[in-house]
Automatic annotation (TrEMBL):
Keywords: Signal. SUPFAM superfamilies: Helical backbone' metal receptor. The lineage of its organism: Bacteria, Bacillati, Actinomycetota, Actinomycetes, Kitasatosporales. It comes from Streptomyces fructofermentans. It holds the Pfam family Peripla_BP_2. This is Iron transporter.
Length: 331
């Protein structure tokens, strides 16, 4: 659920760069042709500046909008369970760019849109089980860019994450800024985000509460390790991610681990068929958690899905969670 106050905070984060502006004439789109970018540990060369970009999911789509690149987009795919999109700083982008699918991207979506670049991530669109991968797109002559938060790290076949989450956000903004010739806009956004995050860190509580991120799942909770955005949202807000030791981005753990680590606060990721209130009721009534500090004290905070995946909403999420951790109140 997108609240007006949250949207206002987020808009402040992008005002320095402006919303929906044109590509910077100083660098120009032609200057970016033939650029080689470091993406997920490999060097990728793009022969031209893309003009028909297709993105998968809300965070990736809003990276393009935040850079003012909606004119370079042919569409996006996104489930319709990601909150209210009418009250975000990039509403004009959503109004302008076609919503291709309410499922994950498919080869058919990409071909129908005549895409010349696909931006997605592992488990954010790219997946082997359906054959929708950068390698398969390359066979079709369509280049891709992989969301850095989702980079495979080689520890297992599916584990993800190669750098701290905010570094991943800044890396993608920098790369996309370079590719599309909007380097100044990208640098301005990053500088603004760094300043906003630093202001929250400066007010962090002396005693940092332990925080558990609850995405979904009743038999086993789906949560965030140290390479997904919640790691730094929690840390920079003044807390400690109780699953910091997991060298992955999004992953499943056991409830016994949650009980053992006894979080002081639980952050709910709000999306999907099971809403935040239903998730909250489950957590508060789930017997094995009854002695966990966050449950006993009813310290449960809600953030939207788009706040908690890599996206330009991350700094605003840090500010809002930071205010909650300092308040000592229920959500």
């Amino acid at each position: 659920m997108r609240k007006p106050v949250a949207a206002a905070l987020l808009c402040l984060a992008v005002l320095a760069a402006g919303c929906g502006a044109e590509v910077e004439p100083s660098s120009g789109p032609e200057a970016a042709a033939g650029r080689t970018l470091a993406n997920c540990g490999r060097e990728v060369t793009y022969d031209k500046v893309p003009e028909r970009v297709v993105t998968n999911d809300v965070g990736i789509t809003e990276l393009m909008f935040a850079l003012g690149l909606e004119d370079r987009m042919a569409g996006f795919a996104m489930p319709d369970d990601k909150g209210d999109l009418t009250d975000v700083p990039w509403k004009d982008g959503y109004d302008k760019v076609p919503w291709l699918s309410k499922q994950q991207l498919t080869r058919e979506n990409v071909l129908d849109a005549r895409a010349d670049l696909v931006i997605a991530g592992w488990n954010y669109g790219f997946r082997e089980d359906s054959g929708f991968t950068p390698a398969e797109l390359e066979k079709l002559g369509i280049p891709s860019y992989v969301l850095t938060e989702s980079c495979r790290n080689g520890r297992t076949k599916t584990s993800r994450g190669i750098m701290p989450p905010l570094d991943a956000l800044y890396a993608d903004l920098t790369n996309l800024g370079e590719l599309f010739g909007v380097e100044e806009r990208a640098a301005s956004l990053i500088a603004r985000f760094r300043k906003e995050v630093a202001a929250v860190e400066a007010r962090a509580p002396e005693k940092r509460p332990k925080v558990f991120l609850y995405d979904s799942g009743q038999d086993q909770p789906f949560t965030s390790g140290r390479f997904a955005a919640p790691e730094e949202i929690i840390t920079r807000a003044g807390g400690v991610n109780v699953m910091h030791d997991l060298a992955d981005s999004w992953t499943t753990v056991g409830w016994e681990t949650v009980v053992e680590r006894d979080p002081d606060v639980i952050v709910i990721c709000d999306y999907g068929d099971v809403g935040a209130e239903e998730k909250r009721e489950f957590l508060l009534s789930y017997g094995p958690l009854r002695n966990v500090s966050a449950i006993r004290d009813k310290r449960v905070f809600v953030l939207d899905y788009a706040d908690l995946v890599e996206s330009p909403r991350n700094p605003s999420a840090i500010a809002r969670l930071g205010a909650y951790l300092r308040s000592g109140k229920e959500n």
